[in-house]
């Protein structure tokens, strides 16, 4: 039953609204949505200001028309899929850098600004925004805020929410609010800012964000380490973190991930578990590198090579392209329910071992890579979607890995968000009472379930959320 | 109209409940509550477990009896004052360190554990919890979570909420929830953890907290710098932060604050604006100190002295005792509406100048000190509470400083919380719509306004909150 979206014509200019099939198709899912799960919105709109966002939401909310915010579409969990149709609100035209205040290490941006664009805007001041994901050059700040994204440098610098100082957002009924402060710290009232961050557009649409920035380090060194076994590599990484070693990036690629990267990116990675490293410091970077090398030595590292100059750039590009490389590796096989579970670092080697063992039991490739220093595993079970048995095995393995991560005190999603894909784990991870409290907040801020319905909350619980 | 609290006898053991005058008196306010503002609770109870907290809240909520959590009573804004009587719930008997996991840099504690006790428990592992306030040795972790406290090392390490991984909390109706994750990062559902942190016991009572810890730095150096004028000192501090200098602590004491410290602590501070410094590093600490010294030189520093060994300990103790020293300095004068406004660092010199100028205009001492690197000013207008004119001038100056801080993009409270003292600034700081959204969350999670009523929200708005 399509929603009547003709009200958009009264709210926005003609070129800001489309009911056309092409536009509806291109907003029917995100990067991670399988063909069969796509849902076309009834209309797409492109607000160009906070006032536009407010007007559309107020009108849609009055008419019981769902609105699902959409940005670059680089999400993995169906976060931006318009599950109940209605309006897909595309924020990519709100892409202005509004103000840079280098004297306060701050920048104000609209949500459609790409992560790379933001960093370009502050580079001349010797500043950068550290927590951005691998997809920063094609993903928007708004999307990163929506999922509380993080990335390769999170191990040293934290997640997106750690760097958001202030947000302007529009609630479901069109009310514009401002949360947080431009002060570095505040204890003033409820921290609504950090509820909005990571709420995946279900509580409000962010229309402006103020970020704190970091000074670029005076010393940066990259390198890689090669291990004989995956277990050695995972254990060495855990030991490095437990020693308090100050790494800016510590990424694991298992053996099959190095093959997949080579096949796609034309690199020549060793056919062995490999750790990518980056160190940031203002002083004494060599001492930190040596501390890491010693720990890796104790865990049987075979090669520990620090790069000179830009040698690592090609490898980082290959790492960044891994998500696409997975699709191209062994067609028609593709990842079944990929994930980004995260566990306390002491549990990390066991979790990696568990995922790999499940793969061996089912004779399926389960490439594991990711932001290892955070205890974050990106696992992907490669299956032929046309082979029901493989597909089922892929789902089973994925479920088992998430369940094990939760048992270990970890989380079903370290950075991609819940979207549609991880809803079924919410009760197991948080408990009924906690999910009820989340639901209460959703209902009080968005009583009509206007904003991005069908996400985060377990599917069967309440058809309206 | 007193509340009938006899239900407590059915809920807890005899030695966990008191209706006695002494106990009620000792829970009638906090450190910052003037005599005339104190409110005695009808009863005091001491839960010893999560189950106790849950049972008391469920019973009180059923009976419309307010419950105000109480810890060490070291708050400054009346945060723990039982504004509508009822039960003062004293958490100090829940003071167990539950688990230390050095392999994950984590500790689980009950809310009544003192900050100093926590740090003692992890010191043997070479770890510490960095964001604690000056009062850490006499304040509880639960109180620090309630206000999202911060302290002298926040400039490098962040606030309390940055270090809380997971919280167990009891909601107003007795429901026990768990929020956050033991994973270093998560994007799973709404961030209820960071709504509870800083909510001053108005949304739930925290019964267990998991903190992330930091490795103790290999190098620590303390020192002090003396300036001819306050403006030089404030400008030098701002310039140091703007240069990205890696200080672990950078505290300002204006001239009158050094006098007050000397009078109380018997120290021999220079009769001049003084900056206390601490540097933390694993390598190259001297280079960082030199970078700071150069900037201070450019801003006319008169003396820049780094301490050897424990020379700074006495000075830090004097800094820690400043709050008590203010009371003893010029009796019967005492601070009128003290504050902890915080602004972007570029505004910091102007804010300090503004506060001092107002003091000069009214011929009143306005000692200013605090966590300068965060843009945080602790201002105190010293007035004779029996002199209506001075008292009024003190309130005027305090109001003007807060209003100016908000105009500068800052916050009415950087670390003490809103409590009763800063409620009147909430609309000016956040706007009506944002305060409405906070109120909606309060009403949905605590519909009977059982938990710590009369705090955070503007007084006249809703007698029930």
From TrEMBL, chains A, B:
GO molecular function, one term: D-lactate dehydrogenase (NAD+) activity
Keywords, in A-Z order: FAD, Flavoprotein, Oxidoreductase, Transit peptide
Top-rank EC class of the record's enzyme: oxidoreductase
Gene Ontology BP terms: lactate catabolic process
UniProt-listed Enzyme Commission number(s): 1.1.2.4
Reported cofactor(s): FAD
TM spans (from-to): none
Keyword Flavoprotein: yes
Domain of life per record: Archaea
Region (Disordered): 15-39
Domain FAD-binding PCMH-type: residue ranges: 37-216
Pfam short name (any one): FAD-oxidase_C
Keyword Transit peptide tagged: yes
Entry's family note: Belongs to the FAD-binding oxidoreductase/transferase type 4 family.
Name by which UniProt lists this protein: D-lactate dehydrogenase (cytochrome)
């Amino acid at each position: 039953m399509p929603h009547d979206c003709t009200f958009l014509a009264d709210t926005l200019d003609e070129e800001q609204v489309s009911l056309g099939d092409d536009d509806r198709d291109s907003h029917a899912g995100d990067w991670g949505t399988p063909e069969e799960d796509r849902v076309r919105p009834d209309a797409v709109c492109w607000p160009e200001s906070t006032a536009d966002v407010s007007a559309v939401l107020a009108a849609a909310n009055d008419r019981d028309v769902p609105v699902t915010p959409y940005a670059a579409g680089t999400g993995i969990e169906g976060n931006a899929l318009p599950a109940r149709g209605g309006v897909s609100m595309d924020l990519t035209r709100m892409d202005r850098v509004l103000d840079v205040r280098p004297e306060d290490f701050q920048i104000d941006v609209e949500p459609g600004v790409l992560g790379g664009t933001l960093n370009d805007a502050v580079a001349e001041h010797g500043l950068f925004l550290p927590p951005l994901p691998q997809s920063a050059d094609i993903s928007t700040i708004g999307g990163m805020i929506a999922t509380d994204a993080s990335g390769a440098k999170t191990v040293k610098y934290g997640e997106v929410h750690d760097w958001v100082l202030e947000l302007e957002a529009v609630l479901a009924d069109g009310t514009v609010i401002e949360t947080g402060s431009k002060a570095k710290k505040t204890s003033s009232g409820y921290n609504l800012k950090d509820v909005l961050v990571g709420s995946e557009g279900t509580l409000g649409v962010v229309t402006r964000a103020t970020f704190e920035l970091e000074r670029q380090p005076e010393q940066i060194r990259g390198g890689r380490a090669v291990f004989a076994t995956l277990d050695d590599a995972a254990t060495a990484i855990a030991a490095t973190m437990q020693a308090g070693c100050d790494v800016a990036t510590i990424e694991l690629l298992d053996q099959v991930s190095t093959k997949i990267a080579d096949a796609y990116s034309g690199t020549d990675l060793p056919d062995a578990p490999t750790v990518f490293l980056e160190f940031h410091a203002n002083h004494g970077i060599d001492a930190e590198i040596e501390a890491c090398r010693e720990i890796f030595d104790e865990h049987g590292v075979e090669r520990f090579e620090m790069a000179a100059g830009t040698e690592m750039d090609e490898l980082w590009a290959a790492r960044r392209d891994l998500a696409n490389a997975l699709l191209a590796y062994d067609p028609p096989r593709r990842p079944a329910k990929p994930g980004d579970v995260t566990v306390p670092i002491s549990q990390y080697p066991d979790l990696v071992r568990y995922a790999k063992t499940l793969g061996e039991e089912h004779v399926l490739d389960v490439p594991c890579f990711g932001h290892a220093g955070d205890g974050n595993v990106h696992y992907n079970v490669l299956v032929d979607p046309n082979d029901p048995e493989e597909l089922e095995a892929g789902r089973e393995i994925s479920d088992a890995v998430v369940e094990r991560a939760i048992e270990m005190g970890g989380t079903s999603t370290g950075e991609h968000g819940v979207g549609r894909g991880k809803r079924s784990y919410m009760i197991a991870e948080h408990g009924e009472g906690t999910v009820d409290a989340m639901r209460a907040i959703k209902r009080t801020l968005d009583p009509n379930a206007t904003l991005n319905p069908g996400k985060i909350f377990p599917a069967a619980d309440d058809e309206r959320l």
